[in-house]
Design brief:
The protein has one domain. It contains 15 helices and no strands.
């Protein structure tokens, strides 16, 4: 029976799907490490890693697949509960906004004042695109964002996704929910193909593939009467499709590369979910649940938001120009190691002292 005013019938996943999937934190860890190494790629020139890390930007697509899956699952599982919108958006705000506003405070207020005094701080504050950042639309217009603020383009997409996707899934009858997800999946490659040169590289319409793949998996698990074996074949198909995307990526790329990669990441997500449901964990799950990787995954949001700021602050002390670095490749690797260590250390401190206590407030907004 559907709740009044919604298309939701308290859709639930099959019983074999675990309530908690630790390997998803491992996937987050893989995604954030790929992004961090990508932003260190100039220091990895001349190493065997260079060919791989220059494509670490695709870690953001993996984040999108996970987000599309988890957010759509929440809407389908809890969309018929009382005060759903209030609780849902409050919980999203508690997750996204604190680290976001901390980044803006540190970049525009604290560090300019600390290093250059209040006059420079006022200069930075005045010239910042506050209206765009307040409305989370900085990804839609060709405004010049400083490097440390750059990662916020994907947060803007997430916020727009929460705003528009949530009422769609909640209102559409659950048996038809797959249709808008498929439509969303189809939009981005076509936009990239025909209108990509007219939009910003970070425009939402060009980055819906991953969110759509995650959403399609979440919906499919709840409305399709397929067995674990059938879903295993879907996962394999996704991985094979993703492999073709990797081939395109290394060859020359195309407007469909992101779509193929999103399918591959969907295969990774499904495989993690299916393997987690097994009595005996697979090698894949054991790798994803390696404790250091799980920890990096747990702090991945703050690490993603803050890592370029940390790299920027370090630059004045650590980033010796490559042509003046007498240690060659070893020196570059050392710089990368210090960057990663300090970025992870800062994110861990922020997680325990700032993010985690704030996330504890989610208990005031439980779905019931």
């Amino acid at each position: 029976m559907e709740a009044a005013g919604t298309g939701i019938a308290m859709a639930k996943p099959p019983s074999w799907v675990p309530a908690f999937i630790p390997s998803f934190d491992g996937l987050r860890g893989v995604a954030i490490l790929a992004v961090l190494l990508y932003h260190c790629h100039t220091r990895l020139e001349g190493t065997f890693l260079e060919r791989f890390v220059i494509w670490g930007w695709s870690g953001v697509s993996l984040f999108f697949v996970l987000s599309g899956f988890l957010i759509t699952g929440i809407i389908l599982d809890d969309g018929a509960t009382k005060r759903f919108y209030a609780n849902f958006y409050a919980r999203r705000i508690l997750r996204i906004w604190p680290a976001y506003w901390m980044l803006l405070f540190l970049f525009y207020f604290f560090f300019p004042f600390w290093f250059s005094g209040w006059r420079w701080m006022l200069h930075e504050v005045v010239r910042a695109p506050w209206l765009y950042m307040l409305c989370f639309v900085q990804n839609l217009w060709p405004i010049a964002l400083p490097g440390a603020i750059g990662p916020t383009w994907s947060l803007a997409i997430e916020q727009q996704f929460y705003l528009f996707w949530t009422p769609i899934v909640r209102k559409v009858p659950v048996r038809w929910a797959l249709l808008p997800a498929v439509m969303m999946f189809s939009v981005s490659p076509l936009v990239r193909l025909y209108w990509g040169d007219r939009l910003t590289a970070t425009h939402t319409l060009t980055h819906l593939d991953g969110l759509a793949v995650g959403a399609m998996i979440a919906i499919g698990l709840r409305i399709l009467p397929w067995t674990q074996k059938a879903w295993r074949w879907v996962a394999r198909a996704g991985l094979l499709t993703g492999a073709s995307g990797v081939w395109l990526m290394f060859d020359h790329g195309s407007p469909f590369t992101d779509t193929l990669l999103a399918a591959g990441f969907g295969g990774m997500l499904l495989t993690a979910l299916l393997d987690q449901a097994e009595t005996r964990p697979s090698l894949y799950v054991r790798a994803l649940t390696w404790r250091p990787l799980l920890f990096v995954g747990k702090i991945s949001y703050g690490l993603y938001v803050m890592h370029i700021l940390v790299f920027t602050v370090l630059a004045g002390y650590l980033d010796i120009p490559i042509d003046k670095l007498h240690w060659g490749v070893a020196g570059n690797l050392l710089i990368v190691a210090v960057r990663l260590a300090l970025a992870i250390g800062f994110a861990a401190l922020m997680w325990f002292q700032f993010e985690k206590p704030i996330l504890g407030l989610k208990r005031k907004f439980q779905f019931a």
